[in-house]
Design goal:
204 residues, five-stranded antiparallel beta sheet, 36% strand
Amino acid sequence: MVSVVDDFEKYTDDDEAGQAIFQTWIDGLKYGDPNHPAGDPQHAPYYAGNGTGAVVGNIPAPLAEEQIVRGGGRSMPMDYSDVKKPWYSEAQRTWSTTQNWTTSGADTLTLYFRGKADNSRAPLYVGIEDGAGRMAMMVHSDPAAVLATEWQRWHLPCADVRAAGVDVGAVKKMVMGVGDRRNPKPGGTGRIYVDDIRLTKRMP
C-alpha cells in the first residue's frame, strides 16, 4: 500500500495561479505583493517567508527540478544557507485541513533525498506537526547525509512520531530542513533534492 504525500509532479512555473513549488513548500523568501488582500483572484497570494535560510525552486525556471529526479518528471530542489540567524533552513508544507496518515494501515513515512558532494555538512531533519501544534523532529542518523550524490531512501516510522506526542491521524504541517534546529549555530550552504514522499506499510 502506498499513499502519496507529495511526488512534486503537479507544480508548474505559474505563480499567478498559485502552482509554483515555493507556494506550497514555503521557504525563507517572501513573494507576492503585501498590498493585495488574500484571496484576490488577480494576484498571487502574499507570503512573508518562514524566516529561515531555505530557498525552494530553481532560478531561472523551471522552478521544480526536472533533471535530478528519483521518479516521474519533477523533484523539489532546496538551497540551504545556515550562515546567519536562525542558522537553519527549512521548507514547510501546511495543509488547509488535517491529514490522516493512518489510513489503510500506513505505518511509515518514506521519502527520497540526495545532496551534493560539495555541500557544507549539516544535519538533515524532518518535522511533523499535528493540528494541536505538537511537532515531532526526526534527524537523519547519518550526519553527512546531505553529501550523498545518489538518491537515499529514508523511512520514518509513524510510531516514532506518536512517541513524540504527535497525532498522526491529524497532521497539519510537514517540515524538511537542514541545520541544527534544536541547538542552532552558524553553519554552511548547499543544496538538497527531495522526491516521492509517501505513506507506506513496511513489510514485517
